[in-house]
Batch of 3 targets.
Target 1
Amino acid sequence: MKKILLLVFLLSISLNYSQNRKEFFKSPTGLFLIASDLHIHSVFSDGRVWPSIRVEEARRDSLDLISLTEHIEYLSYRGDLNYDDRNRAFQIASGMIQDNETLMVINGSEITKPMPPGHINAVFIKDANKLNLYNKLNIEDGYKAVKEANNQGAFVFWNHPNWIENRDDGIARLDSIHNVLLDENLLHGIEVVNEQTYSEEALEIAISNNLTIMGTSDVHGLIDWDYPKENNMHRPITFIISKNRTKKSIRDALFDRKTFVWHRDMLVGKEENIEPIIQENFQIKSMGYYKKILTLRLINNSVVPFKLKYQGNYTFHHRGPVFEIPPKDHLDVTIKTLEILDEISMDFEIQNIIIAPKKFLAISKTLQL
Ligand SMILES: [Zn+2]
Ligand SMILES: [Zn+2]
């Protein structure tokens, strides 16, 4: 009897986790979109919450993957907490995860040096204590800590290269140490989105150096304070396009640069990553003709609005060429096709989906009528 009760209890926990999960996007067949935040803090460096709160927040936000990336060098509660084991935040957070739960936790750290090189995150590390061997605030220890993270098989990305405490003009730019790290393949990604900020210059650096595009919350307080849901806000999320829902596959996808980022009402990612996702989430259905006016239903299955600019030659009966389909919603448009067609191609630019600085995703849909 006790066993049955335990089973029912465990089942109800797992149902709770899965039932309330948000579907951000429809995934193309055979792929998983892993919703991640790989830059967060707890009291085990300078954050203001216990690691368990990070796990609860991630569950509420339907995330699949988090990493508590505590600063190696900045520890705010030395008098109150034992910081001897730098893996402690990871141990507490990962210890909360149920066997059948979707959320995963990986070990990580923020290597925190003055600029250059600035702050650098290492995730999928094996032992944060070994990074602490290189905790002096200089370039040399920055290089050595990054090297050690790489020796552990870590995925390493440059944090907030646009941070105004480091770059007073807010412009992300490479110093010579960054070029060394890039040349030696020790740096694999870059934050294009950090907290509330978006950096077109970081996006340019990502594209020209073939780095993985990252977006993170870098949260120190509570997620709901930084991103109040009543204001329709959400933390930045990096979606990792993975072949499987395993840590190995997710790590491979990060190294393969298979990501895109959701920040405010926009998506940022390389065209080859983001185009198949949008093809899957943007559908057009014919609602038929009245006289020679065709009605098309434009359907958005995603959590972002689609801010569309029509690129073709037809004109619309009720609208101009620019309109928006709200998230998880649809919009009917009427088109003057001049004659009754049996096939139509519709070309759009989506102006809140960014594939390079000042460049928007173009999408083409052909349908039989
Ligand atoms: Zn930082
Ligand atoms: Zn940070």
Target 2
Amino acid sequence: MDENRKSGFVSIIGRPNVGKSTLLNTMLGEKIAIVSKKPQTTRTSITGILTEGDIQYIFTDTPGIHKPRTRLGDYMVKSAYSSVSGADVVLFVVEADTKPSPTELGIIDNLKNRGLPVYLIINKIDAKSKEKLGQTILDYSPLMEFTDVIPVSALKNEGVDIILSEISRHFTEPRFFFPEDMITDQPERMIAAEVIREKILRLTDDEIPHGTAVTIEEFTEKKDLISIRAEIFCEKPSHKGIIIGKNGETIKKIGTFAREDLEEFFGCRVYIDLWVKVKKNWRDSVSAARNFGYTDD
Ligand SMILES: Nc1nc2c(ncn2[C@@H]2O[C@H](COP(=O)(O)OP(=O)(O)OP(=O)(O)O)[C@@H](O)[C@H]2O)c(=O)[nH]1
Ligand SMILES: [Mg+2]
């Protein structure tokens, strides 16, 4: 039976906020990547694994490609392109009814001469008219030779099955790289930190999220209870005040929502203790970024 096995590495790439992480979660049928309506949500490439019969898909969700303004940004873009280097197939995600931006032209330039199959995934079709979708296809088609164009709604799970059935024909590795029931290679601590960061993104205003990082100082499992102590780092004392909120309301919500998600993910009770700290300009500090796990060495 094993001799029919095939697996392949699939890189999901695109500018921030087009729905890459949502697409990954939908393909896996499980939420492993955090999602928010703010750009630059994903900071580091993460692996999602889907095994269906004899086929193992090894996806990497990558940080959105953008013009970096900080060392963290540099790291994010580098991490995205290095995922493409190891891929058998690329899913280039764009948004329906949006003209190719300079960022997209840059990505195309990068992908063009790699000799990899590149699928143009036009996302968010649930929110756009058919006519607009046709225009997006016309806008992108002349820019490079895509293996195929697949319109989808990652949010509503439309067209996503087509991606899965199409791309596996490019898989050549005659074995599985991961156990069949594994869905991600992210350590549990990292998932906990990411879920907390997602709640900060969702509960605070624009300027705060980009400067926050979350570290897990303690993660202990006893019987059916996981206890987590996490530190939230932000860049300014005023940001600390916003994250804590009036009478501690915001931080309380961050903790409650994160606990609900993590209890579902881990399948047991979770206790979360959150602390907020200020670390000025950490996004430009190599050592701080490394401490927060944003490093490639
Ligand atoms: N209407 C609609 N919204 C979507 C769809 N897919 C994603 N979104 C929304 O788009 C926003 C961004 O989604 P993400 O999955 O975080 O996007 P991303 O490309 O991973 O973003 P970065 O990690 O910042 O690069 C969220 O508010 C999603 O709910 C879709 O198919 N339809
Ligand atoms: Mg993302």
Target 3
Amino acid sequence: MNDKEDKEVATLETKVEVLENGPLLVYGTLKVTDKDGNSENKSKTTAFCRCGASGNKPYCDGSHISAGFEG
Ligand code: FES
């Protein structure tokens, strides 16, 4: 992480919550960069997939329910 990224992280207030058998919820303002290097800003609540079944990774699309994800 470079100095600019350190400062960005230092100014963010975030809260992370693991939902049983579901996604990882991140509350706060985020900059999300996908595997192809594309970035987007997210605010309020962002749900990240933990089950691996989402068709919209890295985000949860509700597929954990039909996948029977436990964890
Ligand atoms: S956790 Fe919801 S689709 Fe993976």
